[in-house]
Amino acid sequence: xxxxxxxxxxxxxxxxxxxxxxxxxxxxxxxxxxxxxxxxxxxxxxxxxxxxxxxxxxxxxxxxxxxxxxxxxxxxxxxxxxxxxxxxxxxxxxxxxxxxxxxxxxxxxxxxxxxxxxxxxxxxxxxxxxxxxxxxxxxxxxxxxxxxxxxxxxxxxxxxxxxxxxxxxxxxxxxxxxxxxxxxxxxxxxxxxxxxxxxxxxxxxxxxx
Length: 209
Hints:
Blueprint: H1 2-29, H2 33-36, H3 46-70, E1 79-81, E2 87-89, H4 90-136, H5 143-162, H6 170-173, H7 176-201
Helix pairs in contact: 1-3, 3-4, 4-7, 5-7
């Protein structure tokens, strides 16, 4: 029985460590649907929830052991007996408090930073494309090419986001690919507005509304 418990603990510990490593990689990469989906729990599958829970567990364990190592100078005689009658050192108590309060706060910070990174990337992409539309409004012959390009990108994004059937849902719309799809719909709308305005006025020079 003891061997079984040790095996389970070892597997869980290893899985938590690997989950934390993967989490760090995904956070640095900044393109993970799983990390972004934490803003809406309904977007997370049970596998993603297990992955995030293991990563959080490993992170808190690292915070605890790190704090305990930094407080190495505290003698074991500093401590007291808890409610269960077990002796707890001051070093362990302070490390636990640091891991719980500091660790959870830092996890929230990392989570928010991950979401902000996506929004900044999306805003940067939108700004670049609007600059292209602005230039195309002067050279109106570029508008049809731009419209075709955006429609092709939108088709690719929607295929990846909604699948071959193209069935939209609130859950997918809240994900990063859903946000990019919405952005390209807006870009196509603006380009088509310019094309319509040019055709109506007969003016080769369009203006961005």
